[in-house]
Amino acid sequence: MNPAKFSSPGGPSPSSASLPKVTMPALSEMKRQGKPICALTAYDYATARLADEAGVDFILVGDSLAMVVLGHENTLAVTVDEMLHHTRAVRRAVRRALVVADMPFGSYHGTVAEGVANAVRFMKEAGAEAVKIEGPRVELVRALADAEIPVAGHLGLTPQSVHRMGGYRVQARSVEAMRRLEADAQALAEAGAGAIVLEGIPREAAARITAALPVPTIGIGAGPDCDGQILVFHDLVNLTFAPAAKFVRRYADAGAVFRSAIERYREDVEHRAFPSDAESYHLPGEARAALASDLDGEDAPVNRDAWEGWSSEPTVQ
Ligand code: KIV
């Protein structure tokens, strides 16, 4: 398939192509101007292109792909090489949005130098424009900023800590825990984080952090007071095969649309209703005539009546 033919002629819609490229500093400017930041995950060319053309500002190649694309039970198994592969596909699709690569579990949990080296791979080998790391890793954020790597933090419910947290639980539910979270967010911002994802925390905590920080907060399950919102693409369009979390709003039922399309296709194949003659390639006129004279006197292997209306098709479309 030719990607250039993928969407409507003319390429990206004006909402994406004609707007200036989103950068990490531009997100802080949006915060200053009170403009909500729209973020979404994408893991492949098709969905990234749709998100970019729809005007999403921040496209995260989330390690959630371990679950929603690769079928793992949690995000821990996905590797740097797998994340690089998906980041490259997203990078090819996106013209306007900021492309942020999620660093997977294990890729920044050793030394700071290892974390920086892996982050460099995302920028160099996959074209990421920023990376995201989970937890209050202030030293690493400072080292990434020093290495000219824009970085987003991620606090609250951090899925890579699922075993330490004892499950996917809302975090910062006491005043003391809230204060710790506020201090972590402040420390990450001071160390150079350009944005902070806040996941699975009370609205009150997210509102306080958002008001206190100079850099934008991007919430998921953190209420409406964050500077931006992010959702997992597969949650948004119901491709997750599981009940949605409280914070998810389903904007479409792609699961139902795809299921019905696949079932109808299978039925058509089983009933020989697909493909039709109009969906088939045909010999050009001269070859058809030559074949017809060759076959004169033989039992025709095909129904010649159906040749009526055949045309020559020089290229595959
Ligand atoms: O991996 C991911 O999709 C994420 C979002 C939930 C923020 O980290």
Percent of residues in helical segments? 40-55%
N-to-C order of helices and strands: HHEHEHHEHEHEHHEHEEHHH
Separation of the first and last Cα atoms: 9 Å
Poorly predicted runs of 5 or more residues: 2-14, 304-312
Q: Reading side by side through the largest sheet, how are the strands ordered?
A: 1-2-3-4-5-6-7-8
Reported for the largest beta sheet, the result is: 8 strands, parallel, barrel
- Helix vs. strand class: alpha/beta
What portion of residues belong to β-strands?
5-15%
**Rg, Cα atoms, Å:** 25 Å
Overall mean pLDDT: 92
| Total helical elements | 13
Bound molecules: 3-methyl-2-oxobutanoic acid
What general form does the structure show? elongated
Can you count the beta strands? Answer: 8
Description:
The protein has 317 residues and is α/β, with parallel strands linked by helices. The chain has 13 helices and 8 strands. It has helices spanning 14-17, 24-32, 45-53, 65-68, 80-93, 112-126, 138-146, 162-165, 175-191, 203-212, 233-236, 254-270, 285-295; strands spanning 37-41, 58-61, 98-102, 130-132, 151-156, 195-199, 217-220, 228-231. The chain has an 8-stranded parallel β-barrel with strand order 1-2-3-4-5-6-7-8, surrounded by 7 helices. The model is unreliable at 2-14 and 304-312 (pLDDT under 50). 3-methyl-2-oxobutanoic acid (KIV) is lined by residues 41, 60, 62-64, 102, 154, 197, 199, 220, 230, 232.
